[in-house]
Amino acid sequence: MNTAARSRSPLGRMSLPSPGCRICGFTSRLTRQDTIAEVLLEYAAGWQRLLRTPGVSSRRTGASAWSLLESGCHVRDMCLLFHNRLDAILGQSVIAPRLSVGADTDTARRYRDEEPQQVAEELGRAAGAPARRLAALTDDDWDRDGPRLSDPRLTVGFLTRHLLHDIAHDLARAVRDSSQQ
């Protein structure tokens, strides 16, 4: 990873390059392909630490903000959906019926009922599987796009960096919110 001009990431011990997102510090263009799997696992570990904190609540911190538990569930499901899409782009499977990762009422209700320890374990597995796939990609794989995606710029590399930014962004908010409680 480029060592020039770094800012602190939400993980505390891992620095991310800047300039980038002013909220979470993530800069996708400086995240190298050979480190992406490791970064994904680091973010998942950060989420697992938060979810394993005693007293994790499903209580929301604000009207539009998810609770730490709900956000952790969402990140787990984003990793599952990403792995499914990655497999489809690489020709390993077809894109399965839509996996809901949104904030609809049924999803949020289900998320609030889950156990934080179990979500932490599931999140680790959900991030580990695509991380292993990402670590084994060839240079050509990173530029592949999905035949069912409408924009050829939506390559494996782009989608992967988008996932990492989403996870980093949610993690930064969760760390900030948990430190304010």
Descriptive overview:
The protein starts with 5 loop residues before the first strand and ends with a helix. The chain has helices at residues 33-51, 68-89, 105-112, 116-135, 139-142, 156-179; strands at residues 6-8, 15-17. Mean pLDDT is 78; it is low at 1-19 and 94-103. The protein has one domain (6-54, 64-179): Four Helix Bundle (Hemerythrin (Met), subunit A) (Up-down Bundle). It is mainly alpha-helical. A hairpin with a 6-residue loop joins strand 1 and strand 2 (15-17). The protein is built from 6 helices and 2 strands, in the order ββαααααα. Helix 1 (33-51) runs parallel beside helix 6 (156-179) and helix 2 runs parallel beside helix 4 (116-135). Strands 1-2 form a two-stranded antiparallel sheet. Helix content is 54%, strand content 3%. GO terms for molecular function: isomerase activity. InterPro entries: DinB-like, DinB/YfiT-like. Residues 64-168 form the DinB-like domain. Keywords: Isomerase. This is Maleylpyruvate isomerase N-terminal domain-containing protein.
Quick take:
Helices cover 54% and strands 3% of the residues. It is mainly alpha-helical and 181 residues long. Helix 1 (33-51) runs parallel beside helix 6 and helix 2 (68-89) packs parallel to helix 4 (116-135).
